[in-house]
Amino acid sequence: MTATPAPFDSEAPSGGVTALVRRNPDDMTEVEMVNAVWGSDPRFSDGINYRFVRAEGRAFPNHRCLIPASEFRMGTGDHRYRVTLDSGNFFYLAAVWDPPLADWPLSYRILTIPAGADVIPYQSRHGVIIERRNVMHWLDGTLPNEELFAEPPRHTLFVEPLRTQAALAL
User: Fold this and answer.
1) For the chain, how long is the longest CA-to-CA vector?
2) Which residues, other chains included, contact 73 with Cβ-Cβ below 8 Å and sequence gap of 6+?
3) CB-count exposure of residue 129 (10 Å: 0-12, 13-18, 19+)
4) How far, CA to CA in Å, does 124 sit from each of 1, 74, 127?
5) Cβ contact 5:19 at 8 Å
6) How far apart are the C-alpha atoms of 136 and 115, rounded to whole Å?
7) Can you give the C-alpha Rg of the chain in angstroms?
8) Alpha carbon 49 to chain centroid, angstroms
9) Whole-number Å distance between alpha carbons of 119 and 125
10) Would you state the pLDDT for residue 169?
11) Four-residue CA torsion sign, 98, 125, 130, 161
12) Strands 17-24 vs 52-54: parallel, antiparallel or unpaired
């Protein structure tokens, strides 16, 4: 499985296409990478396009997938930040996918957990980070969610401000 991780921006507009990694629903022995739209079909949720799902107390037995990421971006007010693994490695964000239906394409929603020690000064939640060694555990459900969704130890995530265009030297 080859993936080109890219920054994941939680404030990106809906409708963007992203590569996701999942078990092929037609051949569960195969892992595939396909393009999908971020967010749920608003026809089934009072017109709201849900892009995140709280992970607490949920099992997610089917439709598990992963979004390759080199970092995730977040913002509070006018401040924007990038979050990377302190090791510099890329990672995956845990997600669930929904099949295409009528005119709505294959889509996904990111799972979230309460922010850990490194992120809590900036926001209250963040996406579930799946390290590369746990990719198959997430896709196949071979480790308990409590273990996969555990808060990263302090100093695992590196948070730094994103510079705005106005702050860049000309």
Assistant:
1) 53
2) 7, 8, 9, 10, 11, 80, 81, 82, 83, 162
3) buried
4) 33, 11, 11
5) no
6) 24
7) 16
8) 16
9) 8
10) 53
11) positive
12) unpaired
H/E stretch holding 162 reads none
CB 162 within 8 A of CB 82: yes
Residues 63, 66, 70: CA angle, nearest 5 degrees: 165
Q: Which two tokens stand for residue 164?
A: 């705005």
CB atoms near residue 138 (< 10 Å)? 24
Split the chain (170 residues) into runs of 10 and give each run's mean pLDDT.
Answer: 70 76 96 92 77 92 94 87 91 94 91 94 93 95 94 92 61
What pairing do the DSSP bridges indicate for beta strands 6-9 and 157-161? unpaired
At residue 165, the pLDDT reads 45
C-alpha to C-alpha distance for 163 and 82, rounded to whole angstroms: 10
Sole residue written with tokens 């017109």:
47
